[in-house]
Amino acid sequence: MVKRVGIVIAGVVVTGTLLATTTSIQAATVKKVTVGSVTGDAEIWRHIADSSAAKKAHVQIKVKEFTDGGTLNKATASGEVDVNAFQSYDYFHAFNKQTDTEKLAVLGTTYIEPMGVYSKDYHKVSDIPDGSTIAIARDNANAARGLRLLANAVLVKLKANFSALSGVADIADNPHHFKFKEIDDTTGVSLVKQDDSVAAVLISNSVSQAGGLNVLKDSIYHESINSGTIGNINILATRESQAKNKTYKKLVALYRDPTVQKWIKKQYHGTKVEVKKPVSYLEEK
């Protein structure tokens, strides 16, 4: 009897040890990643952090929110943040050109938020009369993006050296004699609804959405995924020395998980258009 009890106790001890070891191994396989982000992107990554997809991938995500993109990129380069999710490829490229810290690398593509042309009087860009006034953002990045959109709509032609920070002065040909009114981007929606002196307004998606407009339904023309909009595709980035980190690369797959995409589509009314292009596609720019 004593011998039998001893065997049972030993069995319990061994089982307990095995369970503790298994739990320890499972805990050890969970990788922690700090994702730096801003506004809507931070909301997305908080959702991903709590998702079943993240648990299955054994990735524990901590989201650290920033208000300034430049500060976030520097935090990523220094290692304070592992991966960041907020910026377009053009913004990333500009940072790498001017930084004196470690450069960043692209882990993968995520989405494009189309910029749109809005008008209360016209239903097609071709209907905008010659000599009309078009409102564009005062800040260089959005102004350049807006002018590229007009060029894509074949309304203007841009100089060969037109860059992500170019403006109206870099229009090569303005055959419709449009006038351009520089505005604070955040006033774009009210201009569309109230200002009769403006025929059309170029508005970024974050602003139009905040103002109750859906770029896919309410704009008369908007960006699509093509060679002219490569620079506007959003990415996940990390410091260059971690470009091949397998855990960080899992975040790209997590972003593209069908259940995550279903939530993003519903949450943002389809305006964060998923981009599944490889990193090599960006490098064609």
Automatic annotation (TrEMBL):
Residues 1-27 form the signal peptide. It is found in: Membrane. Keywords: Lipoprotein, Membrane, Palmitate, Signal. The keyword Transmembrane helix does not apply. Its main location: membrane. InterPro entries: Lipoprotein_NlpA. The keyword Methyltransferase does not apply. Transmembrane segments: none annotated. It is a lipid-anchor. Belongs to the NlpA lipoprotein family. This is MetQ/NlpA family ABC transporter substrate-binding protein. The lineage of its organism: Bacteria, Bacillati, Bacillota, Bacilli, Lactobacillales.
